[in-house]
Structures are given as structure tokens and as C-alpha cells.
Amino acid sequence: MLITNARRARPVAAWAALAGFALLVTACSSSSSPAAASSPASAPAAASSSASAPSSAASPSGLASAPASPPASPGVTASDAGTSTFLAQGQDINGTALYRPACDSGCPLSGDATAILDRMTWRTWSATEAVGTGTYKLDACNPSCAAGPVYPVPAVVTLSDPVKVCSSSGTRWFWTRASFTFPVGLPKALQGGNAPKNPWTFSTVATAARQSCAG
Questions:
Q1: Which of 80, 94, 102 lies closest to 162 in space, CA to CA?
Q2: Contact 154, 105 (CB under 8 A)
Q3: Residues 162, 156: contact at Cβ < 8 Å?
Q4: Spatial distance between the Cα atoms of 119 and 79, rounded to a whole number of angstroms
Q5: Residue 115 belongs to some domain of the structure
Q6: How many CB atoms sit inside 10 A of residue 121's CB?
Q7: Domain presence at residue 91
Q8: Residue 135: inside a domain, yes or no?
Q9: How much is the pLDDT for 83?
Q10: Are the beta carbons of 209 and 94 closer than 8 angstroms?
Q11: Residue 7 CB: number of other CB atoms within 10 A?
């Protein structure tokens, strides 16, 4: 009877051992599955994506912060040089250089003396502009400049656009432009096609100035 019970107990123990082994395998499988789920394998991909974002965002800010091109340097003027500016009598830069002249004896603006400033009072005479009031004597040149009548016309004169003249004795600045306003108008003989140049560019002075400084 004891032998029979012992033979029956052996299969039961074998089945119990087999069942325990199965439970152990199942437990190991379940414990390894969460570890796989929590694996950081996907983390580098996410990190790579976020790392590239600052690179693309930095480009626009870099463009916005690029310095603008520097402005071109301004040309030298009489004001920059801190010098006086003169009126070339008769547009001759080698002749008399007039500074704030009263023109009591007349200041010819043209080489042929058909346009003369007379009895001038200058309210402004800087390095870049001169404004004065006086009489503008104009030859109508009719029938000829030698025989034509001269008309004294009240005028406000503005001198501007100075240029630099170079010489062995140094440099000087001369006006190259004259503008006029006539408070009482122009006489009929000086209207229409006979009207004086206004504004008047002293091209002789400008050309001589360029040539004097060319070397």
C-alpha cells in the first residue's frame, strides 16, 4: 500500500515541477516586455529633431542682424575745409577774388561786362551760400551790346555751388551759380527771349577749377 502511494506521488510531483517552470518562464517574459517598451531607442531620434530646430531658427535672425552697407562718404565742400568762398570777377579765377563785395564800382559777373552787380548788401555770406540785395545792371544788347541800353534792376542775388581752385599759392573756393529774384519785375526789354539767365551757372569758373586741380 505504501509502495502504491509512493508511485502515485512521483507523477504528481513531476507535474507540479513542470507547472512551476511554466510560471517562471511566463514571469520572465512579462518582466522583459516592459523593459523593451521603456527602451530609449526612440529618444535619439526625438533629440535629433529638436536639435535641428535652433539651426533653422537662427538663419532669419542672422539675416536680420546683418549690418547695412555703410553710406558713401560725402565729397569735400568749402564748409568741410573751413575756408572762405569768393566771387570771381568776370568769371576769371586768376583775376580779382571778391569777398562780400559792396560793388560800389560794380562787380562784373560776365567777361564782357554785360551783367554787373552794383551797390550790394550781403545779409549772408557763408562758405556754402551768399545772399545779398542790390542792383543788377543788365545790358539789353540791342542793337548791339556796345550800343545797347543798360537797365538797373533791383534784385536779390543768391550765390552757391562753390568749387575748389588749386594754385601754387594754395587753394581757394569760388561760386559757380547765381540765382536772382526781381522784387519789382524786369523791364519789358528784358522779358521773354531777352530775359537774363536765371539761374546762371558760371561754366568758365567750373571748367577752370577742374583743370587747375587735375594734376
A1: 80
A2: no
A3: no
A4: 27
A5: yes
A6: 10
A7: no
A8: yes
A9: 72
A10: no
A11: 9
Residue pair 153/188 in contact by the 8 Å Cβ criterion: no
Number of residues in the chain: 215
* Alpha carbons 9 and 2: distance in angstroms, whole number: 11
Q: For 65-91, how does the pLDDT look when each residue is reduced to its tens digit (9 = 90+)?
A: 333 433 333 334 555 445 799 999 999
How many domains would you assign to the chain? 1
Is the residue at 55 inside a domain?
no
For 201, the domain range is 101-212
CA distances from 178 to 18, 26, 126, 162, 207 (A): 121, 109, 15, 11, 16
- Identify the H or E element spanning 163: strand 163-167
Structure-block grid coordinates of residue 100: 562780400
Residue corresponding to grid cell 573756393: 173
Cell of 27: 514571469
pTM: 0.63
190, three cell numbers: 528784358
Fill in the amino acid letter for 103: C
Residue corresponding to grid cell 550790394: 120
Residue type, 188: K
Average pLDDT, integer, range 1-17: 44
